[in-house]
């Protein structure tokens, strides 16, 4: 027999509640409201859907307390069931970085002429360029990097190599993550940086999350609309 919407909803909500407890490492909470309050600070999916989860908790209570022998008074709508299933799946298996990153991004090496980087920035509209030396990430050139360098130098760029920019790279401008990192954790890294007064220009994606692992992709703030789109419920 096909399950009722209320049964599907209750099963999914129970899974969500279990996921929230796992986020808190099973720390004691008095009720779902407290559980939600604590976990929304730690998980971007929970934070994004906090209002919906509050409403779902009320619906869960209504379903549980209005059960009759042959029917449920508070039977959820199909769209509501779809939403709670979507949130459950995001918490259990959030999208991975490799599914949303720009693959094989433009990069340079320390011995490359700076003019080549500037030309590519101008032609392609790029504002960020990873620097790779012997298959290891050594930095991220940004528009700010170039500005800092120009303030202190007045060389003819035709004769200058990328390595001259390396001392002007701000390590806080980028982070390095594995292609298998979940996208929710990455959003958290960007948000935490802002909370600390810095701004991540890009996440450089390598195969295993180490700087000496092969660069396979890049994610920048301009990719966030697509990322948020992945977190939204698809009707």
Structure, described:
This protein has helices at 5-23, 32-39, 44-48, 50-65, 78-92, 114-124, 143-152, 183-195, 224-231, and strands spanning 102-103, 128-133, 136-142, 174-178, 202-206, 215-219. By secondary structure, it is of the alpha+beta class.
Could you provide a short overview of the structure?
The chain is an alpha+beta fold and 235 residues long.
The number of helical runs is 9
Helix content: 40-55%
> Could you spell the SSE succession in H and E letters?
HHHHHEHEEHEHEEH
How many E-type strands?
6
Shape: elongated
Strand composition percent: 5-15%
| Class based on secondary structure composition and strand pairing | alpha+beta
- Give the overall pLDDT as a whole number: 90
- Which consecutive residue ranges, at least 5 long each, have pLDDT under 50? none
The radius of gyration computed from the alpha-carbon positions, rounded to a whole number of angstroms, is 23 Å
Biggest sheet: strand arrangement: 1-6-5-4
What is the straight-line distance between the termini? 25 Å
The biggest sheet amounts to:
4 strands, mixed
List the helices and strands and how they pair.
Layout: H1 5-23, H2 32-39, H3 44-48, H4 50-65, H5 78-92, E1 102-103, H6 114-124, E2 128-133, E3 136-142, H7 143-152, E4 174-178, H8 183-195, E5 202-206, E6 215-219, H9 224-231
Parallel strand pairs: 4-5
Antiparallel strand pairs: 1-6, 2-3, 5-6
Helix pairs in contact: 1-2, 1-4, 1-5, 2-4
Keywords:
13% strand, 9 helices, alpha+beta, 4-stranded mixed β-sheet, 6 strands, 235 residues
